[in-house]
Every structure is written in structure tokens, then in C-alpha cells.
Amino acid sequence: MEANASGSEKGYLPNRLGVKGWVWGGRYTIERYLYTLHRLTGLGLLLYITLHLVMNGYRLSGAESWTDLMELFGGSGFKVGEYLVMAAFIFHALNGGRLILQHLGYTLGSPKPPIYPYGYSMRRRRPIVWVMLAVIVALAIYVLVEFVT
Amino acid sequence: MQDLSFKVQRYLPGKDKKPYIQEFTVPFRQGMTVLDGLIYIKENIDNTLSFRSSCRMGICGACGMLINNFPMLACHTPVEELETARVEVRSLPNFAIIRDLVASLDPLFEKHKSIKPYVISPDLKEAEEPIAEFLQSPDELESYVQFAYCVKCGLCMAACPTVATDALFLGPQPLGQAYRYCTDRRDTGAKERFREADSPHGVWLCHLAGACSEACPKGVDPALAIQLLKRAMVFDSLRLRKKRTPASVAQPPAESKPKIDVPEFTVK
Amino acid sequence: MKETQLKILQYISGIGLFFFVGAHLLVSHLSSGDPTTWESVLGRATSSGWLAFYIILSIFGIYHGLHGLRTIILEFSLPNPAVKVLDWSLLAVGLTVFGYALYIPINAFIVG
N or C terminus: fewer CB in 10 A for chain A? Predict the structure, then answer.
């Protein structure tokens, strides 16, 4: 496919939604926004891993550097960040597990000849998403309680 | 219901730098569709309004538009179902605008062609000069017939978040159709289509947002087809894909003796 | 079927991360006592089991993260010649980060 497949070579007006289309493309249902959140948590975790590796390097500077760094990270701002990272991991991991299964066609059912009013596989299997979200929320609350107490 | 307010996207190339919204008042009629409203505007208010339509019964896929922020077929959308008197109509997103509500579907057709959307028969002579039908069981038919209902309207491509940024991504419609042909037992072109779908802008940029299946007006469920295509490709890559013989051609009926002795006709 | 193979590795690393990061979080954030004290860190640093754990965790994490980043960058209509440049760049970044991620626990294991 040519890179200029947008039609702009013929003088038509390009009309691609762009990155805005990842976040808001219209009135869609939950799976569209789970995709957006999966992407956001993934990028957040990638950023965190980078900082985490840098932080781990302080181990090589000895006990004093390490202890000072841990004291800095004991602040409430860092604790909130730490909780957000854990919540992001919980979401990304469980949603990722659902995605691995569904990407390989499992838990989606088999093709059915369409009879009006049309349904589709992801809507029929939406209870899986609700169960997954319930587990995510439960785990996030459990971790929050552990952090606070 | 009171009179409807149609906010329609207008754009005239060469005159307008960017699209703008023009408002029209359309009298409500029981059972009218969004397409009926657009035809009313064109016939009675502004005959310069441009849009595509053909069958007006949801089978040709020509009238795909963004209606109240959701891609729909204008002929297939009763105004009452929108549950509002304000109808906003724009051209399909992710497709270049030719004029007003007319979008260029050329990228869709080019990508559709690239996945070879036809049965690739192992026997070229049979393909050129068919002698009989192929034998397929009802189960084999059911494995792909849902995906054969695609009318190439482009609503799935308008809904897809990956198509929103990636002009090179094949898209839900071509990928769904690739699976439709790969799973058809009359076809032997799966490897070629896998190669096409295995590109950096192929099937693996689908992240199961599901918007394509939600938008599809014919119940084709392209998201399901794409995930089944992924499964087929993963199994093929791991050499776990079951080999299957292509569908055979029906044999002519064998001559058989009549079960009872039929007397000769007396009248010759 | 290069893209399919890369995606299979993404799935495997994802499943691996589920267990490895889950265990890491349980030990580092949710266990009783303070696992971030110098003594506790030193205890894990000098254990060969934990060394192997951190090496595998690094492999899974770096591959999974960079492959995800590659997917996002590809979605900006990156033409095919630029995809090769992207792949080699990410490989270089990944190997560098992995080298650093390997250096820390191995150094801690040897030196103490």
C-alpha cells in the first residue's frame, strides 16, 4: 500500500481522526475504551520500568545511597504513584490475559449466520468483560487497603 | 415528533478550506430514514448537497455516513431510532472527503483487492471451465457464511481506532474477508493471504477494540473474523494448523437401474 | 511470518510477566516487614534464585515493553523502509537496557 493512501494525492480532503480517534471516536461501547486504557497503562508501565531500572542502579552505590533513596520514596506523593503503578499493572495484566484468549479466537464463540436484529460475538460475551472488571476493581481495592494500613 | 434539525457537513473543494456545518429544517414523517431527510433537503431546500445513495434498503453500502457520532447507513437508520430531533450528519471519518458527505472509498477497495478476495482453486482448469458444484457440508458453510455478507460499506474502517492513525493498516474489512476466504474449503490461497496479513501493518495491529463489529450494519462481525484469522496464523506459524483437503467437485449422478419394471409405453 | 512470531513472543512474555511481576509486587510491596531495607535487598541480591528471577523478569519486561512501543509507533503510518530502522533501533535500545538490567543484579551478586 502506498504511504499516500489517504486520497490526498487526488486533491481530496484528508479526514483521518488521528490520535484523537484512539481516545474518542464516537459513541462506542466498553471494549473500545478498554483498548485505550490498555494502551495508556502500557505506556505508563514502560515509563515506570525505565525509572525503576535507574533507581535499582543506586544499589551499586552502597547502603547509604540506597537508604537515602528509599527515604525519599517514602513520601506520600511517591506512595500515590506507587499505588497507581500497581493498579495499572493489575488492569494491564488482567485485560492482557483476556486479550490473549480473545486474540486467539477463544471465548468469542463461533460464527453464526446473521439474523436480524444482529448481535456480535463481543457483545454476546460481554459478561466476561464485566467479570474481569469486577476482579480488577476488587484487587485494586485490596491493594489500596494494604497500602493504607 | 416535531420538525427535525439536520446539521449537515458541507465542503466544496476549491471553495472551502475546511468542512463546515449547515443547518436545515426537515419536516418529520413517520418511518422516515436519515436518507429520506437528505433527499428532502436536496429536492426542496438545497440541490447542491452531495451524498451517495443507491439501493435505499441497506444492501449496497453506498450511503455510509457519521450520524450523531456513529457510523451508520443513512438508508438503514430510521430517524426515530436516534431518539432526538437533532440529526448531525458528517462524512465517514478515516476516509478523505471528495465533497459534502461523499467520501473516497478507494483505499478500502485497494486494500480489499490486496488480500485476493476470491476463491483460489487448486485446479485452474476447473476454475476456468467449471463442470459441477463444489461439495461443502452445512458446518463448513457456517464457518464462513456470516463473513460473506459484507457489503463493503466502510463503516468498520470508520470505526476502527487503528485506521484513525495508520493509513497503511489493512483494516477490519480486508482482514475479515481474508479470513472468509481462508476458511472456505474451496480455497487453497490461505498461505498467500497470511503473507499479506503478516505485514507490519497487517492483522497484528488489531487490538480488539470491537468498534468494527459494533458499527457493522450487516451483522458480519469482522472482529470475530480477525481474531479467528490470528488464530489460524499463529497455528500455521507453529506448524499446528490442521492440513485439510480442498472441497471436491460433485460427481455426476451414476446411472442406476429403475427399482421396479416400468412397462413400455403403448403410444410411441 | 515474522510479525506472527514476534506476537507469539509478546503473548509468552505477557504471561510470564503476569507471574513474575505479580511475585515481585507481592514481595516488594505487599509482604509484611520492609523489603526495601538494605539488609533485605542484600539478602535477595546474593541469592542465585533471585538473580535468575530478575534476569528472566528483565528479559520478559524489556521485550514486552519495547514490542508494545513498536506497535504504537507503527500505527503512525510508518512506511516499510522506516520499519526496518525502527526494528534495529529498538533492538539496540533493548540490548543496551538489558545489559544494564543484567549488570545491576550480577554485580550485586558478585560484590554483595
Answer: C
What is chain B's pLDDT, residue by residue, as a tens digit (268 residues)?
689 999 999 999 999 999 999 999 999 999 999 999 999 999 999 999 999 999 999 999 999 999 999 999 999 999 999 999 999 999 999 999 999 999 999 999 999 999 999 999 888 888 888 888 899 999 999 999 999 999 999 999 999 999 999 999 999 999 999 999 999 999 999 999 999 999 999 999 999 999 999 999 999 999 999 999 999 999 999 999 888 888 888 887 777 776 777 777 888 7
The two counts, helices (H) then strands (E), for chain A are 6, 0
Cβ-Cβ contacts under 8 Å, A12 against chain B: 13, 96-98, 104
Domain of residue B96, CATH code: 3.10.20.30
Q: DSSP letter string over A126-143?
A: HHHHHHHHHHHHHHHHHH
Judge whether A102 is closer than 8 Å to chain B, CB to CB: yes
Residue A7 lies in a domain: no
The residue to which cell 487448486 is assigned: B122
Give pTM, 2 decimals: 0.91
Chain B residues close to C77, C-beta within 8 Å = 165-168
Quick check: helix, strand or coil at residue A89?
helix
- Residue B166 at interface with chain C, using a CB cutoff of 8 Å: yes
A94 lies in some domain: yes
- Subunits touching A (CB < 8 Å, at least 3 pairs)? B, C
For chain B, positions 19-58, list CB contacts with chain A under 8 A: 19
Q: Residue B211 sits in which domain range?
A: 106-237
B110–A1 CB contact, under 8 Å: yes
Decide if B193 contacts B130 (C-beta within 8 A). Answer: no
Query: Residues of A numbered 38-57 whose beta carbons fall under 8 angstroms of chain C's beta carbons: which are they?
Result: 39, 42-43, 45-46, 49-50, 53, 56-57
Distance (Å) from the alpha carbon of A56 to chain B's nearest alpha carbon: 33
Residues of B with Cβ-Cβ distance to A8 under 8 angstroms = 96
Asked if B181 has any chain A CB less than 8 Å from its own CB, the reply is: no
Is there a single domain that holds both residue B79 and residue B142?
A: no
Amino acid occupying residue C65: G
Per-position DSSP letters for B199-229, written without gaps between them: STTSGGG-----HHHHH-TT---HHHHHHHH
Complex ipTM, two decimals? 0.89
